[in-house]
Amino acid sequence: MKKRKTYRVGYTQGVYDMFHVGHLRLINHAKELCDCLIVGVNADELVQSYKGKQPVIPQEERAEIVRNIKAVDECVIVSTLDKTEILKDFRFDAVFIGDDWKGNPRWAQTEADLKPFHVDVVYLPHTDGISSTQLRPSEGEKVEE
C-alpha cells in the first residue's frame, strides 16, 4: 500500500540555468512530499527583468531539461514571480523553495500572500557550494567547446 504524501499538488520555480545537482536535489525532494509536482521555469524576459542578465540556456531548452526529469509531472514556462498569480492557473497546496531563502523579505511576503489560500511554503535543504551564478562564465571568459 502506497503511503499518502503530505501534499496533493506541489509547485517549485526557478531559472534552472546550467542545470546542476542542487536543482535536481530540490526537485526530487519536493516530489517526495507531493503526489503531483509542477515546476515553473522562469521565462528569459522575466530573468532579464529581475537579474539584469540573460540566462545562458534559452527558456525552451531549460524547460525541456526540466520536463524530462522523472520527478516532474508538469513543467511550464512562467512570466511572473508572484505565486498568487500562478496559483490562479495551477491549484497547488505547497510551494517548495531552498532554505537559503528562509527569512528573506520577499519569501516572508509570499508566505503571507499564500496563507489565505491555505498554501504552505516549504523550505527544503539547499545544496551548498553550487549555483548557476558560480558556473556562469565571467565577463570576457569563454566556455571552450
| Category by helix and strand content | alpha/beta
Helix and strand string, N-terminal first?
Answer: EHEHHEHEHEH
- How far apart the termini lie comes to 49 Å
Q: Determine the strand fraction and express it as a percent band.
A: 15-25%
Lateral strand order in the biggest sheet: 3-2-1-4-5
Task: Determine Rg (CA atoms, Å).
Answer: 15 Å
Helix content: 25-40%
Q: How is the main sheet built?
A: 5 strands, parallel
What's the β-strand tally?
5
Mean pLDDT: 89
Total of DSSP H or I helical runs spanning 4+ residues:
6
Residue stretches low in confidence (pLDDT < 50, at least 5 long) are 141-145
Shape field? globular
Please, could you describe this protein's structure?
There is one protein chain. The protein has 145 residues and is of the alpha/beta class. 34% of the residues lie in helices and 22% in strands. The chain contains 6 helices and 5 strands; from the N terminus they run βαβααβαβαβα. It has a 5-stranded parallel beta sheet, sandwiched between helices. α1 links the parallel β1 (7-14) and β2 (34-42). Residues 141-145 have low confidence and may be disordered.
